[in-house]
Amino acid sequence: MDTQLRKLQEMGGATLLISLPKDWIKASSLKKGSVLSIESSGDGGLLIYPVGSGTRAEKEIEIAYPSPFERGRFGDQITGAYLLGYDLIRVKGKHRINSRDRESILTAIKRLIGLEVVEEDAFGITSQFLVDNTAVEPSKIFRRISTIVRAMINDTLLQVSNESLQYESIAQRDDEVDRLHFLLVRLIRTAVRDPRIAAKFGLTAIDSLDYRVAASTLESAGDHAVELSNAFSKLQRIEPSIQKQLSSINQALDSIEDGSTRAFVEKNYRIAQEVIDSYKNFEGLLENLRKGASVSENLPELLHISDLIERIARCQRDIADLVSPTVPAE
After folding, report:
1. Where residue 308 falls among pLDDT bands split at 50, 70, 90?
2. Which among 141, 220, 147 is positioned nearest to 183, based on CA atoms?
3. Cβ–Cβ < 8 Å for 316, 260
4. Which of 222, 281, 287, 291 is the most buried (most CB within 10 A)?
5. For the chain, what is the mean pLDDT?
6. Residue 146 and residue 261 in contact, taking contact as beta carbons nearer than 8 Å
7. What is the domain extent for residue 208?
8. 327 lies in a domain?
9. Which residues are within 8 A (CB) of 83 and not within 5 positions of it... i.e. 6 or more apart?
10. Could you tell me if residue 75 is inside a domain?
């Protein structure tokens, strides 16, 4: 429907009225006496819906088998449909699904939170998203991702001298970060398309965009954490002086990570500025690490490690940068 401008009209000296678009009235099957729900969008606007229209119709998509794309791309297609908000995702074809492709399809479904197989036969697999779009708030998912990423980094930096540390567990936790990231992106996209869901989450259009950027940035920090654990796993020995520096770096980085998450979720500009200031001091710790590494037998590896730590800290600073100074801190 095209944008229309309408003037407020006064009735009875106190009541202001506005007419509704005729096309919308017709499309919504409204008539005299119909009841409308009016909600505040949280950004200065109003959302008007016919009562009883709150149930969102399920979106369905069918993926052809065999795939017209490159063999083995079913995972990408299913993930793409999931992120676009499809509730029913069917893989269906005229030929039997071979065992290799079936395993690829089922693996892709298992990697996506809330998506479950509801029908399966020789010629097709149907999965359905079973989570209420309004049941889990984006802020809680974001906090959970942040908690996992912080634990990945902590476990790596605090246990560099612990030979029993299983670096493989870091990569496994990154898989959980990816799953939560996909869920968060799906919810944000759904909120952008449905103002009622956005209003329930308390998200404006700018908030949704910021969440999308922050989630991707946090997911990148998780990827860097995996690289960091791999880099440490290749070291034979770390000098006590380097271990001490890494411990100080870990404490500072943990504070930055905690602050950036709280600042973003709470829209607290004061905390965001503290994170940005802390990042400047953090750069000094990294510079000292690089100087200490210059006399270490692990010089190339330690320089790579310091670079990865800097990337992680920069991700957190970038998240803090998203907090708008126009939002007053409480």
Report:
1. very high
2. 141
3. yes
4. 222
5. 86
6. yes
7. 138-321
8. no
9. 182, 185, 186, 189
10. yes
> pTM here?
0.80
Torsion over CA of 285, 291, 294 and 298, rounded to 10 degrees? -10
Q: With 80 as the cut, is the pLDDT of residue 329 above it? A: no
- 3-state DSSP call for residue 17? strand
Residues 175 and 310 in one domain: yes
pLDDT confidence of residue 43: 60
Q: How far apart are CA 144 and CA 329, in angstroms?
A: 23
The reply to whether 326 falls in a domain is no
Q: How many domains does the chain have?
A: 3
Q: Which of 149, 113, 132, 271 is nearest to 221 (CA)?
A: 149
CATH number of the domain enclosing 229:
1.20.58.220
Q: For Cα atoms 273, 279, 280, give the angle at the middle one, nearest 5 degrees.
A: 100
Same domain assignment for residues 146 and 207: yes
Q: What is the pLDDT of residue 75?
A: 86
Query: Among the listed ranges 90-94, 154-158, 268-272, 323-327, which one has the minimum average pLDDT value?
Result: 323-327
Exposure string of 134-147, with b = 16+ CB inside 10 Å and e = fewer, is eebebbebbebbbe
- What's the pLDDT score for residue 5? 78
